[in-house]
Design a protein that fits this description.
The chain is mainly alpha-helical and about 260 residues long. It has eleven helices and no strands. Helix 1 crosses helix 7, helix 4 packs antiparallel against helix 10 and helix 5 runs parallel beside helix 8.
Length: about 260
């Protein structure tokens, strides 16, 4: 009953503040727009600006296959959609602390662990649903415009799920940073620092299979036969970090004087 009440509260809060709409819009925008740009808009722009450009060179500058378009979509979700989403939901913990409204569920007997779990479940479910649906939309849309280059929709579906799982990691960071910084904008900035930094560290030291960023690498391969050992290692690390971040959030909340903000 406790968790059910908190889930309902988070759902209503997300609807009231248009957070769910922003999350889906940030993902679907690129899912639909990228194939259109690469098929209809950008080629005409290049032809008008560089009329003597060979067709082969133009094709090298554009995404001209379904696979390339899906990878471009995944890159945009990682680089741009996550930026929009992080700041749109940066207040899910920080705002409640700064506005002193977190005290209300606590006073009604709700535990900090349940509060954190409800936020992680609601917003984690939202981001993984958005990225998965976005990947499928992009798969079919790019396939219609550029011909289907993948043997089935399974690689795109898997890519959306893996990308979404990495974004759940972002949500866990965001909740923790909200409890740490107690202000929405600093929480968003610190979250993006770790979110982008995780992949940067993986690139620098070639240790993606030990980091959550391995999920992104595997997603972008769009392989028909994925590396299960690679995914398992990265997924295990992701789940462990989410649990650790959530536990640290509970510890942090327990040490705060909630009436002071």
């Amino acid at each position: 009953m406790e968790i059910k009440t908190l889930l309902k509260k988070e759902l209503l809060d997300g609807v009231r503040n248009y957070r769910f709409i922003i999350i889906f819009a940030a993902v679907f925008f690129f899912a639909i727009l990228d194939p259109v740009l690469n098929k209809l808009v950008l080629p005409e722009v290049l032809r008008s600006q560089f009329p003597d450009m060979p067709e082969a060179l133009m094709n090298e500058m554009l995404f001209t296959t379904q696979v390339a378009n899906i990878r471009g979509f995944l890159g945009n979700v990682y680089q741009l959609s996550s930026l929009i989403i992080a700041f749109s939901i940066s207040g899910i913990m920080a705002q409640e602390i700064s506005e002193k409204t977190l005290i209300f569920p606590v006073c009604t007997g709700k535990s900090f662990a349940s509060i954190v779990a409800a936020k992680l479940f609601v917003y984690g479910s939202c981001v993984i649903t958005a990225t998965t649906l976005g990947a499928m939309i992009n798969y079919f849309y790019a396939g219609v415009l550029f011909e289907f280059g993948l043997p089935s929709a399974i690689p795109a579906l898997r890519a959306g799920l893996l990308n979404g799982t990495y974004m759940i990691y972002m949500v866990a960071i965001l909740i923790f940073m909200g409890a740490l910084a107690r202000k929405a904008i600093p929480a968003g900035l610190l979250t993006l620092l770790l979110y982008y930094g995780t992949r940067l560290i993986g690139d620098l030291f070639n240790i993606h299979n030990y980091l959550p960023s391995g999920l992104l690498i595997e997603a972008e391969l769009l392989a028909a036969a994925p590396s299960l050992s690679f995914i398992a290692g990265s997924l295990a690390t992701t789940v462990a970090l989410i649990i650790i971040l959530s536990s640290l959030t509970v510890v942090r909340l327990s040490s705060l004087e909630l009436t002071r903000g």
